Amino acid sequence: MGERVKAKFDSYPAHIKPLMLNLRSLVLGVAETHSLGTVEEALKWGEPSYQVKGGSPVRMNWSAKDPEHYFLYFNCNTRLVDTFREVYGHALSLQGNRAIVLNVADPLPEPIVCHCVELAFNYKRLSHLPLLGV
């Protein structure tokens, strides 16, 4: 983790930082588990961002403006969130065509979030398939 990204995680309140670090670990784990290559970790728009070659980037953040939620953001010019809505709309809270909304009080739906990240990291390979091949 680079210094700028570490500083961002260190800036989160004590009760939020473990949630964000867990989400980071999950995102990195998806790339490793599925042998998707090196993950580029950076700050984009002040938020931790993750990308693999051939994939669509994933960002995450928590903000004091909406303290009960943290977010996993996807490129709004893709069909990712529309696909998540079709497949996981019953289990996920989604914001427009850009984010999965996670409640700080609820357990992270890890298998679903992992699958969504996997789809993002494979987006360029799957983008031509109906529902991204799900």
UniProtKB/TrEMBL annotation:
Q: Which domain of life is it from?
A: Bacteria
The record's section on SUPFAM superfamilies has:
YdhG-like
- Tell me what this protein is called: YdhG-like domain-containing protein
* Originating species: Photobacterium halotolerans
